[in-house]
Please model this.
Amino acid sequence: MTYLEFEKPVAELQEQLDKLRLIGEQGKVDVTASVAEMEEKIGELRKNIYENLNAWQRVQLSRHPDRPYTLYYIENLCENFVELHGDRAVGDDKAIVGGFGLMDGQTYLFLGQQKGVNTKMRQYRRFGMANPEGYRKALRLMKLAEKFNKPIVTFIDTPGAFPGIEAEERGQAEAIARNLFEMTLLKVPVICIVLGEGASGGAIGIGLGDRIFMLENTWYSVISPEGCASILWRSADFKEQAAEALQLTAKNNFELGIIDGIIKEPLGGAHVNPKSMVTNLKRAIKKNIKELSAMDPEERIQARIDKYSAMGRFTEVSK
Amino acid sequence: MERVSWFKRLKEGITTSTREKKEAPDGVWVKCPSCKKAYRNKEFLENLKICPYCDHHSRLNSEEYFDIIYDESEYKILFADLRSIDFLGFTDSKSYQVRLDEAYEKTGLSDAMAVAEGTVDGHPLVVACMDFEFIGGSMGSVVGEKIARAVDRALEQRSALLIISKSGGARMMESSISLMQLAKTSAKLTQLAREGVPYFSLMTDPTTGGVTASYAMLGDINMAEPGALIGFAGPRVIKETIKKDLPKGFQRSEFLLESGFLDFIVDRRLLRQRLMELLVLFKS
Ligand SMILES: [Zn+2]
Model:
């Protein structure tokens, strides 16, 4: 278990509890009462910490090294999953994965950004930062899902689209723009879920759908707190202030009307109990796809256009 | 000559916005930022702010583009009442509201985009044009809404739409709402596409970030002025990420044309002519 800075008090109590249990196992002293007391204390402390997280602490949880990534969820949601590769033009981007999976007997297209689980894999997955081929692979798979009338679930977890020479040469901006355009017109239901980090154009490049959700300890915004701080505060050190100013948490985005709901995480974060996170996720996906499937495709597309057309905060002055 | 009316207006002092009042008088010598040669301001203005020696295109504002594009430089401004609001109470070194007030004061503009309608050689055309001077041409709710309404207007009038981009990207001070403008504008453009109404995109220096990753790249025709910086990530960010020098001409219009993302590059002096051709070719 990796503890973040603000989790240190929990770690310390946990250590004391472990020691106490060891004494109990040696059998000389009865520690039952003390263990119970300590457990209660830890429980209260954790509740207190995790229910009062600030924006920056949630950003840290969204990037927790033990946090499950896209493929973990897909593999645990599905009885059977077949990953599909390539954009049929340039290559196979490793930062976006996708394929068809069977979940409780129904076929879905699942796709999303994939971060690496260790140092070697993080390089291989380009830290979840896709190249244009990734967005084009995603679009190819979505068109395939549309052709065979399968609902689409996208998982967002990216620090941004990759800023590189080849990415620009091959049209990073065009690839994202094209996805936004084409996703608007998909005839099948589309739901998008932020699993970790939802940074900017790289996130929304697979993030336009009928319903959008965020896991409880994730962030979604136009720029990362570090990026925002280095531009507006002239130093990335002001990331905590930037995180607050951007109002980037799930709760913030729900209040702003950007997302349709928040999917609850186990206390302490998705990594504390990944299996229960999968259960929560599955429930949300099934419920929403069921509701959306009841709509006529054209009605769904119109609702999608209306949903995004309504996004914006402005006023009108009279001359 | 097509550009005469624009110059005539300048000369007769018809166009007297706050911005132009601050500009150098006709007789003053100015130095080209690209080739460093000097020329008289009058000559520069007559040449639509293009260097007479190296063809370097200096930035124009929305009003200047409307003057160049429309018949007799006559057009109607639409949706001018829309204003940004500081709905997050976003504050860094200063609040977003203060930034907005300073931008109104400094530029005389109402936001980073203006929309106009008029005719080009008799063909109706809605033009939505960005202004870089207004908070770096950043895209927030007002820019998104103006594009949405420009699309509606083009649909109602069955008139083609031209969007002239010039932007540093999405407006950070509107956070995820500004990010959603990528989705909003792209979704709105599908309505034009489905109705067979042509949409032309003109990218000018600079067109980067969220604007490139939405409407700027979605034209039925994608065009750019010569030498414009066009890209998703800014050159500085790319350089810091890959820790290598960037190739010469990287992310410039000519590079994008070679990479296959532009239909053509258009010299500003030929823009109106080119639009006239397109409007005839795409006429339903
Ligand atoms: Zn020059």
Observations:
- Chain B has ten helices and eleven strands.
- The longest strand of chain B covers residues 199-208.
